[in-house]
Write a structure and sequence with these properties.
Its main location: membrane. InterPro entries: ComA-like_MBL, ComEC_N, Competence_ComEC/Rec2, Competence_DNA_uptake, DUF4131, Metallo-B-lactamas, RibonucZ/Hydroxyglut_hydro. It is found in: Cell membrane. It is a multi-pass membrane protein. The strands form five sheets. The chain has an eight-stranded mixed β-sheet with strand order 15-14-12-8-7-6-23-24, with no helix packed on it. A seven-stranded mixed β-sheet has the order 16-17-18-19-20-21-22. Strand 18 and strand 19 form a beta hairpin. The two termini are 41 Å apart. It folds into five domains: 63 residues, no CATH class; 103 residues, Nucleic acid-binding proteins (OB fold (Dihydrolipoamide Acetyltransferase, E2P)), CATH 2.40.50; 192 residues, no CATH class; 32 residues, no CATH class; 236 residues, Metallo-beta-lactamase, Chain A. By secondary structure, it is α/β, with parallel strands linked by helices. The chain is built from 25 helices and 24 strands. 45% of the residues lie in helices and 17% in strands. The protein is globular and about 100 Å long. The relative contact order is 0.08.
């Protein structure tokens, strides 16, 4: 049975690594072959093929349910029902609309919407909304969060922005009771305690501040504030434990078998908590696992513990094959696998403190390669933080919060219990915040292909029982993790990364021993692209220091990520074309015409001295490596371009189009003078300014310049000085990225 389960699981998991989905005919052919092999000795291969077909078919269904390309960017009226709890953040409401209808077109089953300064929404309401729909698409940058992958895992077929709307039907209590519970909790708690309790009771973490999420990430305790298997298992364990206590105290009726009742009550408690939490994917996984554990406890203990674990994994993947696209799937199942490896077959007994320490050390070591493979931060304080946080949350906060919610109908009792839970959680955040301020999380550089598999083998050997000689080889296999070496440009060369940041600009230039960032990308309300995209991408490249940060001018699409980047990296020098409007408290130098050399690469700054408007004050940067030139122009207009050409009548190989391709820039005379070989557009997909303008495209076509667009190709990488073709992030194929 274990072999059969393993082959099916491997077949489904292979979906994650597909660059594209095969044709339906190919799936049918493989499925028939797999079924034909089942009655024979080659049945494991048959189950492998069936798992692959099952996962691929599910992915094909989700991809096929996406918004029609012809509707991308169109504004339509649609009707639908709000599901889940709406998320409120900085005047923006984000929510999911299911089964949306329009009389003229077919719409996806699940649509994720944002409504800026929208009306209050409740779960279960039906609304008629005017929405600008978008195909599920996101920015693509090397080694950063993949938004398109996340949308695919959530089965989201379209995104959109609400322009206006009105309520068609109020929600019924049956569909809105979770929202009403949330309102009740908020009414009985002070503002600084609400978000954490709501997150633990209802699984809605949207109220937690960005700083709180940062603290949880830095200390490796995010799993405590998102209802997961730990919380569900804890409640079920409490119920099971109390039944066992009654039995041992002789208080249980002898005529009633205690074991089936204990398992049944514990499972009901888990399902009740799962219902309260909205039955998100982690909760479903936990409930399935608990159900199998209780069945194993009642009837199948002779099978051991590995078989139920594999059965749970197979069932979860059978129910939702796309679960493997989520980091939480890998972290939860790998954590359980580590516990099975560490505690199964151990004969020694230790006290609870040593056991807890052993558990945290094992989880930290075991999950290290998984976190690195998933490009997640590694918390260096996680073992200590979890030793403190897990007991507080598990045995104080969650029980008090659930009891307080249950007794809200009793005056003062529910409020008092919730307040105690909130106070304990608030104190815990203070402790975690102090730890995070001392030792932040480690964002590891990108490793070579063979390093992570070797590390996985290494931690497996390390976690084996003491006394086995092979454990020593585990440390050898993990050794490369501590000695990564980034590939740096050679003397006289530079690597240029034009980040895909939507409607904005951010360009990283690296030489052999220096790094410069030109602009920091935009920020939109509570979403700072510099913090979410540019900073992680630089940290993954091993950059902890910027020699120079150039902010072309003060517009938010160029300077939006300034504070986030400056606070996280050691920035030695900041230069801007608009110092007075930058709204920044630390010293910033004004842009002055100057040149310098780094590692055989020449950098030249320029600013139009007669400029009066903000865009024309942009600080222009010219980079030259082995006579191959890159020109970054900010948002300058045609007049500033002409002024630059008069002072620098030279050929440009790579030109970042001024003002994202605005009609007021990239004049014909300017292009004729510099004769660019390739123009780079940094802009957002379906941006409201319609950049680049069609006239600008015609001008570049007239001078026979190649066109590269971050909105189409993702981040762009240039090896300046080697005269090589450009590298596009979207050239790395993934099945969820449909061009």
């Amino acid at each position: 049975m274990r072999l059969a389960l393993c082959t099916f699981i491997i077949g489904v998991l292979s979906l994650r690594f597909l660059p594209c989905l095969p044709s339906p005919f190919f799936f049918i052919l493989l499925g028939c072959l797999g079924l034909a092999l089942l009655p024979w000795r080659f049945y494991p291969i048959g189950l492998l093929l069936i798992g692959f077909v099952w996962g691929g078919s599910a992915a094909s269904f989700v991809i096929g349910d996406r918004l029609d390309r012809s509707l991308d960017g169109q504004t339509l009226w649609l009707e639908g029902k709000i599901v889940g709890l709406p998320e409120y953040a900085d005047k923006v409401i984000r929510f999911q609309l299911d089964h949306a209808k329009n009389t003229e077109v077919r719409l996806p089953k699940h649509i994720r919407l944002s409504w800026y300064q929208g009306e209050p929404l409740e779960t279960g309401e039906r609304w008629r909304l005017k929405v600008r729909l978008k195909y599920p698409r996101g920015t693509v940058n090397p080694n950063t969060f993949d938004y398109e992958q996340w949308l695919t895992a959530k089965h989201i077929g379209a995104t959109g922005t609400v322009k206006e709307g009105y309520r068609l039907e109020a929600s019924a209590y049956a569909s809105n009771w979770r929202y009403l519970v949330k309102v009740k909790i908020n009414q009985h708690l002070p503002e600084d305690m609400r978000a954490g309790i709501v997150a633990l009771v209802l699984g809605d973490g949207s109220g937690l501040t960005k700083q709180q999420w940062q603290v949880l990430q830095e200390t490796g305790t995010i799993h405590l504030m998102v209802i997961s298997g730990q919380h569900i298992t804890l409640l079920a364990g409490f119920i099971y434990f109390w039944v066992v206590c009654l039995v041992r105290l002789g208080l249980w009726p002898t005529r009633i078998p205690w074991l089936p009742v204990a398992c049944g009550l514990a499972m009901l408690g888990a399902l009740g908590y799962g219902l309260l939490a909205g039955f998100e994917v982690p909760v479903k996984r936990a409930c399935i696992m608990l159900a199998l554990v209780f069945i194993w406890r009642l009837r199948f203990r002779h099978l051991g513990i590995v078989t139920p674990f594999l059965m749970v994994l197979a069932i979860v993947l059978a129910v939702d094959p796309l679960a493997s696209l989520q980091a939480g799937f890998w972290l939860s199942f790998c954590s359980v696998a580590i516990l099975l490896l560490v505690f199964s077959g151990r004969l020694s007994r230790q006290n609870w403190l040593l056991t807890a320490i052993k558990l945290e050390v094992a989880i930290t070591i075991g999950l290290l390669p998984i976190l690195l493979a998933l490009l997640l931060p590694v918390s260096l304080t996680a073992p200590i933080a979890n030793l403190i946080a897990v007991p507080v949350v598990s045995f104080i906060v969650v029980p008090l919060a659930l009891l307080g919610t249950l007794f809200l109908f009793i005056p003062f009792v529910g409020t008092w219990l919730l307040w105690l839970a909130g106070a304990a959680l608030k104190s815990l955040f203070c402790i975690l915040g102090f730890m995070a301020s001392i030792i932040p999380a480690w964002i590891a550089p990108v490793y070579s292909v063979w390093t992570i598999p070797l590390a996985l083998l290494g931690v497996f050997l390390i976690l084996l029982p003491r006394g086995l000689l092979v454990r020593g080889f585990g440390f050898i296999f993990c050794f490369p993790l501590f000695f990564t070496e980034q590939v740096l440009p050679e003397e006289g060369r530079a690597e240029v990364v034009v980040f895909d940041v939507g409607q904005g600009t951010s360009v990283l230039i690296k030489t052999k021993t220096h790094a410069l960032l030109y602009d920091t990308s935009p920020s939109f309300g509570d979403f700072n692209v510099g913090e979410r995209v540019v900073l992680p991408a630089m940290r993954r490249q091993g950059i902890t220091k910027l020699d120079t940060l150039v902010i072309s001018h003060a517009d938010t699409d160029h300077a939006g990520g300034l504070q986030a980047i400056e606070q996280s990296l050691n920035v030695l020098h900041i230069i801007s074309g608009e110092v007075s409007k930058l709204n920044y408290s630390k010293p910033v130098s004004s842009c002055q015409n100057a040149s310098w050399w780094w590692d055989g690469v020449k950098f030249t700054l320029w600013q139009w001295q007669e400029a009066k408007k903000s865009n024309d004050l942009s600080c222009v940067l010219l980079v030259e490596a082995q006579n191959e030139r890159l020109l970054l122009t900010g948002d300058v207009s045609a007049k500033a371009e002409q002024a630059w050409v008069k002072e620098n009548p030279i050929k440009i190989h790579w030109l970042l189009a001024a003002h994202h391709g605005s009609k007021q820039s990239s004049s014909g005379a300017f292009l004729a003078a510099i004769k660019p070989e390739t123009v780079l557009f940094s802009r957002g997909w379906l941006n409201p300014f319609h950049h680049p303008h069609p006239d600008v495209i015609l001008r570049y076509n007239k001078v026979q310049a190649n066109i590269e667009d971050t909105a189409v190709s993702g981040a762009l990488v240039i090896k300046l000085g080697d005269y090589l073709p450009i590298t596009r992030a979207r050239d790395t194929k993934k099945f969820w990225r449909k061009e």
